[in-house]
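To illustrate the input format used throughout this study, we show a single complete record. The first block contains the structure-token representation of the backbone; no residue identities are included at this stage. The design step must infer an amino acid for every position from geometry alone.
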């Protein structure tokens, strides 16, 4: 599997909404005509932290191959319209990072049935997502993985935790001339709601504290469903 998790730096709240209006057209086409895409979902800021601006967006896409992403997905008229608009309307303040992640062999994408997101109303209980970006200290990666195995064991028994998936760069082509080994990790956590997330992090706070101690850098950002896309098939 080849995964991209772009942090899209929309230039303003208005351009964020414009960006999503194009994504909303792409998502059903992707779901209905691209069997090699196993997730295509976009999330709004949860507006409960200031780590990144609240008008940025987080994407999450899974493909069976590079070709499924770079050829099949980009062939639809809806996607081409989006790419044109992104440039002409300057929807982003800088290009998104579209480098691939790969499954790290720890965690789960869903607990059975896939998630298909529908229209969000003001009264809706929104799914709540957390992304963890982690750069392990030299030689500490295996210890961090063991901590994640403990966290996942807890998540598997927690009904409010819907996704906990660890990803890394291992096995992805490094196009940089210096060929630096990238040991960074990306973790997606999805919960029924904010309360479920708070309870889970409270239950596993000692493991997260140890992961921070073993990391050079980590960044936690929080998101809610936008009503667009799907996770799993």
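Output of the design step:
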């Amino acid at each position: 599997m080849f995964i991209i998790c772009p942090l899209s730096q929309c230039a303003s709240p208005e351009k964020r909404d414009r960006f999503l209006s194009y994504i909303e057209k792409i998502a059903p086409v992707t779901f209905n005509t691209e069997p090699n895409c196993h997730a295509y979902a976009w999330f709004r800021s949860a507006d409960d932290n200031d780590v990144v601006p609240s008008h940025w967006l987080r994407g999450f896409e899974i493909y069976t191959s590079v070709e499924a992403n770079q050829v099949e997905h980009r062939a639809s008229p809806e996607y081409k319209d989006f790419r044109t608009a992104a440039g002409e309307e300057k929807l982003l303040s800088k290009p998104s990072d579209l480098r691939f992640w790969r499954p790290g062999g720890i965690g789960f994408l869903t607990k059975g049935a896939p998630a298909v997101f529908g229209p969000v109303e003001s009264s809706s209980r929104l799914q709540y997502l957390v992304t963890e970006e982690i750069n392990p200290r030299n030689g500490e990666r295996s210890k961090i993985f063991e901590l994640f195995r403990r966290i996942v064991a807890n998540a598997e028994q927690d009904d409010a935790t819907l996704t906990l998936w660890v990803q890394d760069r291992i096995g992805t082509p490094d196009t940089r001339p210096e060929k630096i080994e990238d040991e960074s990790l990306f973790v997606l956590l999805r919960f029924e709601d904010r309360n479920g997330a708070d309870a889970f992090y409270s239950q596993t706070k000692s493991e997260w504290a140890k992961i921070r101690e073993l990391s050079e850098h980590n960044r936690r950002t929080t998101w809610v469903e936008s009503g667009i896309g799907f996770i799993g098939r």
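Structural context for interpreting the output: The first strand starts at residue 2 and ends at 4. The radius of gyration is 17 Å.
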